[in-house]
């Protein structure tokens, strides 16, 4: 099932994607996914897809693919390297990524994103799947030249528009071995697989939940494969995750 968040006639709602149509949900995505028998159906081209959730927090994981760590000259940490991206950095499909004036080195990072479906704390890896709503695509936009100077990565990872998510949440997906790709203006930049992760989805969420309560709608970014590279104003960047779809944004 694919859950969308969309705008139609200035009204924002959650819905279910049914073929090429969207059916609104009664109560949002975190309870029973009820669609009334008489619910309207909106053709997908007639609605604006938004970020599929509005996370209270986004937790991202660095260096979770060994080849990506190596391409930047970093070691793979023994424990997951976790950092926060603010909710204000989130944008949806088709929205513009803004290159701020304080960076000269803006990079793309294609990632599988996990959406939490139930409030949870101190999960074992085996308990994790029951607390996941589904999965979406993410682009962990990074001001690479600020990661060293800022140290806390607050601008490098958390600036406005630095967390595109979408186009929807896929609820039926096995995250173990999915293709994760980036294209910039049609040129393939990243082409990896979640099978290359150092820490699995279950391990990551178990580790994070040991320290922090996770709420419905929170998002976990699971790391990026090798091939990160620069983005410039005018570029169109597309992140694709197998079984989910394509997330496309333009740089301005």
Short recap of the structure:
By secondary structure, this protein is mainly beta. The chain has helices at residues 66-71, 144-150, 154-158, 201-209; strands at 2-8, 11-18, 21-24, 42-43, 48-49, 58-62, 81-85, 90-91, 96-97, 106-108, 110-116, 132-139, 142-143, 163-170, 179-184, 187-193, 219-221, 229-231, 236-241, 245-251.
Distance between the termini: 33 Å
N-to-C series of helices and strands = EEEEEEHEEEEEEEHHEEEHEEEE
CATH class label of the largest domain? Alpha Beta
Q: pLDDT average, as an integer?
A: 96
The CATH superfamily of the largest domain bears the name Fumarylacetoacetase-like, C-terminal domain
Strand content: 35-45%
Helical content band: 10-25%
Structure, described:
The protein is mostly beta strands. The protein contains four helices and 20 strands. The model has no long low-confidence stretch (mean pLDDT 96).
Question: Which helices and strands appear, and what pairs or packs with what?
Answer:
Elements (H helix, E strand, L loop, with lengths): L1 E7 L2 E8 L2 E4 L17 E2 L4 E2 L8 E5 L3 H6 L9 E5 L4 E2 L4 E2 L8 E3 L1 E7 L15 E8 L2 E2 H7 L3 H5 L4 E8 L8 E6 L2 E7 L7 H9 L9 E3 L7 E3 L4 E6 L3 E7 L1
Parallel strand pairs: 6-17, 8-14, 9-20
Antiparallel strand pairs: 1-2, 1-5, 1-14, 2-3, 3-4, 6-7, 10-13, 10-18, 11-12, 11-17, 12-14, 15-16, 15-19, 19-20
Protein name: Fumarylacetoacetate hydrolase family protein
GO molecular function: hydrolase activity
InterPro entries: Fumarylacetoacetase-like_C, Fumarylacetoacetase_C_sf, Rv2993c-like_N
């Amino acid at each position: 099932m694919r859950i969308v968040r969309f705008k139609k006639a200035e009204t924002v709602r959650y819905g279910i994607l049914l073929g090429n149509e969207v059916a609104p949900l009664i109560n949002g995505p975190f309870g029973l996914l009820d669609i009334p028998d008489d619910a309207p159906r909106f053709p997908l081209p007639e609605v604006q897809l938004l970020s599929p959730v509005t996370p209270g927090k986004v937790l991202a994981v660095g260096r979770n693919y060994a080849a990506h760590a190596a391409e930047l000259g970093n070691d793979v940490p023994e424990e997951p390297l976790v950092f926060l991206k603010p909710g204000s950095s989130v944008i949806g499909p088709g929205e513009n990524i803004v290159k701020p004036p304080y960076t000269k080195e803006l990079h793309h990072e294609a990632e599988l994103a996990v959406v939490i479906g139930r409030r949870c704390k101190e999960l074992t890896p085996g308990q994790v799947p029951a607390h996941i709503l589904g999965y979406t695509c993410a682009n962990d936009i990074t001001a690479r030249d600020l990661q060293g100077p800022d140290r806390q990565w607050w601008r490098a990872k958390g600036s406005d528009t630095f967390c595109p998510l979408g186009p929807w949440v896929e609820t039926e997906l096995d995250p173990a071995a999915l293709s994760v790709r980036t294209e910039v203006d049609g040129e393939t930049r990243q082409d990896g697989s979640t099978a290359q992760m150092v820490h699995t989805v279950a391990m990551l969420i178990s580790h994070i939940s040991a320290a922090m309560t996770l709420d419905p709608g929170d998002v976990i970014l699971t790391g990026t494969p090798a091939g990160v590279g620069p983005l410039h104003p005018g570029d169109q960047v597309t992140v694709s995750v197998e079984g989910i779809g394509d997330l496309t944004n333009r740089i301005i």
